[in-house]
Amino acid sequence: MKVVPRHKFVLSSIRSSLIMGLVLVSFGTSGLTVGQAIAADESCSLKSPKPDGVPIQVAAKLEVGGQLKLAAGASTTSLSDDNKIQSVPMSVVAQFAYDEQRLDDGSSQTHRLAIRRYDDAQAVIKIASKITKPQLRDNRKLIAAVANEHTAFLSAPAGPLTRDELELIDVPANTLILDELLPQAEVEVGHRWKPSDDVLARFLCLDAVGHTEVECVLAGVKDGVAEITFEGPLGGAIDGVATDIELKGKLLYDMEHQLPKTLLLAIKEQRGIGHVGTGLDVVAKMKLTVAPQPDSKLLTPDVVQAAKLPDSDVAPPLEYIADDKSFRFVYDRRWHLTRDDPDLAVMRLIDRGDLLAQCNIAATTIDTQKPLELAEFQTDVQQALGKMFTKFLRAKESSTSSGLRILQSSAEGTAEDLPIQWRYYLVNNEHGRALNIIFTMETPLADQFHDQDLPILESVEFTDSKPATSQAAKPDKQSVSR
After folding, report:
1. Which of 272, 331, 349 is nearest to 17 (CA)?
2. Where does the pLDDT of residue 470 fall: very low under 50, low under 70, confident under 90, or very high at 90 and above?
């Protein structure tokens, strides 16, 4: 594993915290800073409005600076007392612009649905001296946003997003749920309230909030605009790692249009190294503006009507596309990519904060004139495992619904004094294109893992139909390492 991670690891680390700075400064031409005095009326109604079907136009800018924390000499998911922590400087400048329209009728407080069309979504990420610029594919700029009382997610009606695409746009202050910061009552200037744990978790893209001292205040009202300030520390969790956040911000709420108008946000986060992400010590600032857009050119009635929207509150899978575009597959969002090199991709499955399994994928080729037999495949597996091998559990040959051939050989053994189960697969097409796919887990977790390997196998697609030119299908020791 490279000591300096690629940008996708940065995006997966920073998305949950907005990335994050604590001292609010003046943003743009509004001239507003936290604490600026605003003349107040007696009271105002700050409740979530019913959707009126009118699109809104949203623009956001995000600036980040700080350090990534890596365990020197270890993978990004392996950390022991002997590992020294290495700091790597990073910065991010990102901007977004999209039109959004609520599609639910507001009758249920536990389900919200909106459609977005991005006009702009880009970032410049610098890690040490390496610069990357992730962006959305043209056919993934139409985005559905779903939220319920516990979770919120984004997906693309045209097909699965890649992890890079998701991390680019899945940032805090989701406009679908921004109004949930309101007290949902008629309140007087000076009124204080605390957002719920669930609201803060969804607002900051965290899995959960364990404790919070964040408090909101109606600071004043002037010309039909309410100023709400909020600040305080909170502790949460993301992908099984605890994180400490200092939150400070201001929301200007347009009471005439019943819309958030401007959000100024600053956050500071410190997070340890986790199973699938780097540690963080970062600061950032964000400005988000919202305005009615009744004549949206991005969300015409035809576009909205034609969009295939999510039919449940379960986030759909993501898509992996090899760098050379030779193959693809889809996978559950609980899988996180921790390595993506030309010769090997590695994913880890995080289930309710725990590391459940690892999946290694390596492209290879087979001899189409003499396809590998199941018995030969088992011999290769046993040789690759070496002294770790104890016994085979099962072996079979099958095929996917698209006609790809699959050889499977599952085995048990020990590694580092732990009981381990390996599930080896060789998936190939008629042209000799093939993938070695290996799932590794501690044996006691095999029942919990169950058959979560099958969706990945079933979705494999070889997008390069040219005949293979070499034969190298045997598993290697690198592929079986935990």
Report:
1. 272
2. low
Report the C-alpha gap between 205 and 376 in whole angstroms.
Answer: 47
Q: Which residue intervals of the chain bear CATH 2.30.230?
A: 7-26+49-306
Give 66-118 as a DSSP string: EEEEEEETS-TT---TTPEEEEEEEEEEEEEEEEEEE-S-S--TT-EEEEEEE
Closest CA relative to residue 349, chosen from 77, 158, 29: 77
Q: Which of 98, 95, 103, 160 is CA-nearest to residue 134?
A: 95
Q: Are 368 and 465 in contact (CB under 8 A)?
A: no
Neighbours of 441 (CB within 10 A): 23
Query: Cα separations (Å) of 18 from 10, 35, 128, 135, 171?
Result: 12, 22, 20, 18, 6
Structure tokens at 442: 């501690």
Chain region(s) in the chain for CATH 3.40.1000.10: 318-480
Question: For domain 318-480, is the CATH number 3.40.1000.10?
Answer: yes
pLDDT at residue 332 is higher than 60: yes
Rounded CA-CA distance 362/433 in Å is 11
**Cβ atoms < 10 Å from Cβ of 141:** 20
Architecture of domain 7-26+49-306: Roll (2.30)
Is the confidence at residue 318, as pLDDT, over 70? Answer: yes
Q: What span, in angstroms and rounded, lies between the C-alpha atoms of 67 and 178?
A: 28
pLDDT at 168: 95
CB 182 within 8 A of CB 47: yes
The token pair that represents 310 in the structure block: 């999510």
Predicted local distance difference test score (pLDDT) of residue 278: 84
DSSP 8-state assignment for residue 372: P
